[in-house]
Amino acid sequence: MDFGPWLARQLKKSGMSQADLAQRIGLTRAAVSAWITGRATPRGETINKIAEALGTDLGTIHTRTADTLAGLPVSWYHRPGHADGGREFGNAAAFAFEADVGVLAREATQNSLDERLDETQPVRVRYTLHELTGEALACFRREIRWDDLLPHYEAAAEQDQKVGRMVAAGLRDMYERDRLVLLRIDDYNASGLTGDDYETGRFSAVVRRQLDSQKSMSGAGGSYGLGKATLWATSRLGLVLMNSTLSEPHEGRTERRLIGRLDLPWREVGGKPWAGPAWFGRPDPDANNVDVARSWWADEESVERLHLSRESAEPGTSFLIVGAHDVASLAEGTESEGVEDDDSVHRMHNRLLDALGRNFWAAMTGGGTQRPLLEASVRTLRNGVEVIPETRVDPRVTQPSRTRALQAFLDGTTVERLTESGQVAMATVPLDVPGLAGRGSGGQHRAVVLVTEAEHADGKPNRVTTMRGNRMTVRVGWVPGLAVGTNPFQAVLLAGDAAGDEAPFAAEAEAFLRASEPPEHDKWGQTDELRMLYSPSAYRRIGALVTATNKAVRDLVALPRNKSNGGSERLRRRLAVGGRKKATRVTAGGPPTLEELDARINGDGAWCVTAEVKIPLGGDTWRPTPVAKLDVRSGSRPVLAWSELVAVHNCEVIDGAIRFAPGARNAVFRGTTDVTSHPVRAVFSGLVVELRADKGGQA
């Protein structure tokens, strides 16, 4: 816009006359009139005075792509109640997920990954817990115009419904304990909230709309537009503030685009009904309702007072969750009328680290020519002072085996069969991708299966972790039908784009699997989208993929046959199953029996036993106790104590007894004897394992 018309527009919006401006800058009204009519232009030093008079910066005057909004203070706009009397008592999208920081970390980080800007560099995500008390809390409340919000909060808290009770708990925690927990999520090398305040774009999708994901690429993790609701669900006060640095200029600017959104239930305040949501911004003079709030370009001081300062001008967004809480942390600690205990921020800190490491270890792993897709860290502050230093999530620590497997695949160092410690074996399995709308075939994709030995830090062994192109963990599942004596392992299934550039029909597989994920993105199966895009039976292709994957894993971890050395054979001859009876027909409800045993002597001299139990029909109600004895030629067999007894498949160990899964026909457990209970060294003895199971052991 030319300077004259632009200046006239700003004077009108701010309620300032030409004479008022002339007086403020020390010139005549005629000079101002000449600028507006285009007969003259102001000098450089005069432009500085005009910027000061209008309450704006030189960039706005030079670009003239946005209004200064001078004289329009930042305030709250609450959506009026519906004219037809309709009422919403909360944002339904927020109830799609638990108010759990682990779920928040999964959904918010996934959104950041989907918005990665420079694909040669990782997107950096930092979570900051910040507890405010005393004067720091009072200053923050003044900055967000708390006095204007309080009547709305009080009206919402009086309502006996879910959101109202949550708001009431948040108010009690803040007022009774003089504390408020902020949780800020910063991402860098991300797109930022680009686009118009109201028209279709990233900004409106997050701030104004529901069920609008704005993600068209098949490799994106999100597809429902629900993940952003976890931001508001994690706030007891339903309040989230945003500061975005844009990758594309809007109104000629890129830095410090601010907006706030409040989600409350329907309420009455001041004798008027209010629909629910509210926005924190500058009044929009161009809107039909002048009270409507739009985003504004803030100065650095305002951003700092709102605890939204970003560390650089790199594109991305900072989300500030006001009144953050974590249901899971409350369950682990004390909870009195919904008030968090003093250690809540420490538990939230640890749970954020755990969730990031568990869900995004693969995205944080690099290898070969590929850099990691993601870097993530967590820190905790109290009144601006760091109380828990920033901790960067290291996938080699959180998931060492799985990280080793993926890195070997990226480095091209996998093997066909595991023969040494630390190796990673690889195989491929087919996924027959159906054609869209059930027409024809999309082609056969070859997904990648990786297997390596398990480590304690990985969690439960003998699992398959599945993922696609965004490398976020979708599901961790047990591998059934493993042979007795299988060494503990971890497996990874890479499908779609995650299978590599050379995998056939990767894009088709990526789109197919994305359509098969529910809003939680925690499994592949039947969904409405899958049924509509492909066919009602398309989900069966996923079942076939799972079956092929489990078979490939069993083949990769199978112990080689007919290659055992003499020492292993001698050890096998010294191992016996105790209490085995002559072959008889098993009657329903009979006791379980030991079917197979595998054992080795570890470095400490203890017997390490893996046992498979056969369970007859109805025998799952028995509670047998495994007993280890030394095999002697005469006399009673000395009983050995167990130093460890753990369940592996279809059972659990409770007080030394085996409790079977209902309906199970076989089960596997492992045990290690206590060396201090050995009357002789294991290398000079044999071992007998019995199941003590009689009617007295029944449930």
Explain what you see.
- The chain is built from 20 helices and 27 strands.
- The radius of gyration is 32 Å and the shape is elongated.
- The relative contact order is 0.08.
Structural descriptors:
alpha+beta; elongated; disordered C terminus
Structural class comes to: alpha+beta
Cα separation of the termini:
84 Å
- What are the segments in which pLDDT stays under 50 over at least 5 consecutive residues? 218-225, 331-340, 562-566, 579-587, 695-699
Gyration radius from CA atoms, angstroms: 32 Å
Strand-residue fraction? 25-35%
Main sheet characteristics: 12 strands, mixed
Helical fraction equals: 25-40%
The total of helices stands at 20
Shape: elongated
Indicate the mean pLDDT: 84
The tally of beta strands, per DSSP, is: 27
Topology:
Layout: H1 3-14, H2 18-25, H3 29-37, H4 44-54, H5 58-63, E1 75-80, H6 101-114, E2 123-133, H7 134-143, H8 146-157, H9 162-177, E3 179-188, H10 202-207, H11 229-233, E4 235-245, E5 257-263, E6 267-269, E7 272-283, E8 293-294, E9 296-297, H12 300-305, E10 316-324, H13 327-332, H14 344-360, E11 374-382, E12 385-392, H15 395-398, H16 400-411, E13 424-434, E14 441-453, E15 463-467, E16 475-478, E17 489-494, H17 506-515, H18 528-533, H19 540-557, H20 566-573, E18 575-577, E19 593-601, E20 607-614, E21 625-631, E22 639-640, E23 642-649, E24 651-654, E25 657-660, E26 666-673, E27 686-692
Helix pairs in contact: 1-3, 2-3, 6-14, 8-9
Quick take:
The chain is α+β, with helices and mostly antiparallel strands and 699 residues long. Strands 1, 2, 3, 4, 5, 6, 7, 8, 9, 10, 11 and 12 form a twelve-stranded mixed beta sheet that branches. It has a five-stranded mixed beta sheet with strand order 13-14-17-15-16. A four-stranded mixed beta sheet has the order 18-27-21-22. Strand 6 and strand 7 form a beta hairpin.
